[in-house]
Amino acid sequence: MKIKGEINTRNVWIDGKYLDPMESQKVHNHSPDGFAWGNYGGSGPSQLALAILLTHFLEEVAVYYYHDFKWDTIANLPPSDFEIEVDLDEWLKKQKEKNERRNN
Question: Where residue 6 falls among pLDDT bands split at 50, 70, 90?
Fold first, then answer.
């Protein structure tokens, strides 16, 4: 999936479709002001990570893993416009493997 963000408006699109923060805020409202990113892991990046995962996974999976996705991907974005390609299925597979190694 291609994720694109515009820093001045804090708007985000996935594969060209606008990502509305309100949908993820219904699950967990970290950031009433919407999305944010740029070298930190606060409430705006948490909201964005949750919103992205909710577009691809069941709510239970998204809620369980979105903090990991925030730290792996969103918190590392520059504080500017961005465009990235992400394979969420591959990311989740690697995350599960990492969690297994931690637990063994």
Answer: very high
For the cut 80, the answer to whether the pLDDT of residue 104 exceeds it is: no
> Measured between alpha carbons, how far is residue 17 from residues 5, 24, 42, 103 in Å?
11, 15, 24, 38
Bridge partners of residue 4, in order along the sequence: 13, 83
What average pLDDT score do residues 35-62 get?
A: 96
Domain ranges for the chain? 2-103
Specify the residue for token string 């990046």. 45
C-alpha span between 93 and 34 (Å, rounded): 28
pLDDT exceeds 90 at position 99: no
Kindly tell me the sign of the dihedral angle through the C-alpha atoms of 12, 17, 18, 23: negative
Q: For residue 98, what are its two tokens?
A: 């990492």
Which letter does DSSP use for residue 76 in this model?
G
Helix (H) or strand (E) holding 82: strand 82-85
Mean pLDDT, residues 31-57 taken together: 95
User: pTM score, two decimals?
Assistant: 0.94
